[in-house]
Structure formats: structure tokens, C-alpha cells
Amino acid sequence: MKRITFDIETEGDFRTNGDFSNLEVTVVGVHDSETGTLSAFYKEELPKLWPVLESADIIVGYNSDHFDIPILAKYYAGDLGKIKSIDLLKEIKNVLGRRLKLDNVAGATLGRNKTSDGLEAVKWWAQGLKEKVRDYCLADVAITNDLYEYARKHGSLKYRDYDGVREIKLDTSAWEEIEDSPALTHTLPF
């Protein structure tokens, strides 16, 4: 089972009201479960990212179905929706009934927090600090990957609420089931 955990960073006007069409990718970070490696792709390197995603049995993110995948879809010739996706935030919301910040879940579950936040990354990008944005993105990928692995092992994640740390039970039994039709390839040669 090849799993690609990913995160994107963007630039643009964030007053979107749910329409992300004006946002542009700056960098995409990925973790490959087969090799254990972290890699980053700047916007101009996205053609190198497509075979990585296409080779995955599943892709994993945090708020990825709502944010990352629709933005990446603007650049991709195929249909990213053909690749099985696990969105940890969506899984949490389905159980808890509300959304939680990645930093909250990471701190309570893993005992470590994000290195910064996305709006800070936008400022860094505007200042030309591309490597800092890449490193931040890869740190978020590592956290997301660790949360996925924790959830698969324990069947839950944790979060901090006003009265302490609470646990969210998740049904992870189907997460790594391979569907009958493999992901289509759109950029790899046949």
C-alpha cells in the first residue's frame, strides 16, 4: 500500500468565501510511505509531482479534500478525485461535528505543535523566503503523517478542549482498503 501524505502552501487573496480559484500554489510537500522520504515541489516543479500522486494507492492530508485537492486540480490535467483520499480533518468533523485546527490535534496527540501557521508562510513567500516556506510545509506533512499513523494504530486522535484533552474515536478500518479500480495515470507513459 503506497500512501502519499501531502500539504500545500499558497499565495493570493484569502478572502475567498470558500472559492479558492484565486489562490496559487507556492509549494507542495509530500511524504512517501514506501521510502519514508519527505520531498517538496515548487509550483514550477508540479509536473514532477503528478507521477508521485498517480503512483499512490491513497493520498492523505489535513483539510485536503476541501482546500489542497481543489487548488491542485487547477494545475493537473487529470482528475485527482480518482485517487483515494483520506482527509483527517473530514474524519474528525464527521465524528466530532466540528473542525479542529491541525495544531490543536498535533499538540494533544503527538505532544508537538506546528512550527508556524499558513498566514506566516504567505508573508515569508512574499519576502522571498522560499526555503523557509518549504521547511514549514514539510513540517506540516510530517505532523499529518504522524497523526495518520497514530490514528491507524490507536483508532483515535486527541484534541485539547476548554476542559482538557479529549479523545476522538475514528473508524480507520477502511482507510487502507484498496479499491478494485486503481488510480488512473495521466502523465506517466503506458
Question: Which helices and strands, and how do they pair?
Answer:
Layout: E1 3-11, E2 24-32, E3 37-42, H1 46-54, E4 58-61, H2 64-73, E5 84-87, H3 88-96, H4 102-110, H5 118-126, H6 130-154, E6 156-161, E7 164-169
Helix pairs in contact: 4-6, 5-6
Number of helices: 6
Helix content: 25-40%
User: Roughly how many Å is the radius of gyration?
Assistant: 16 Å
| Low-pLDDT stretches | none
Order of helices and strands: EEEHEHEHHHHEE
Determine the strand fraction and express it as a percent band: 15-25%
Within the CATH hierarchy, at the fold level, what is the topology?
Nucleotidyltransferase, domain 5
Mean pLDDT: 91
Structural class: alpha/beta
CATH class: Alpha Beta
CATH architecture: 2-Layer Sandwich
Our count of domains comes out at: 1
Gap between N and C termini, in Å? 21 Å
The CATH fourth-level homologous superfamily: Ribonuclease H-like superfamily/Ribonuclease H
Which overall shape is indicated by the principal axes computed on the Cα atoms?
Answer: globular
User: What is the β-strand count?
Assistant: 7
- Spatial order of the strands in the main sheet? 3-2-1-4-5
How is the biggest beta sheet arranged?
5 strands, mixed
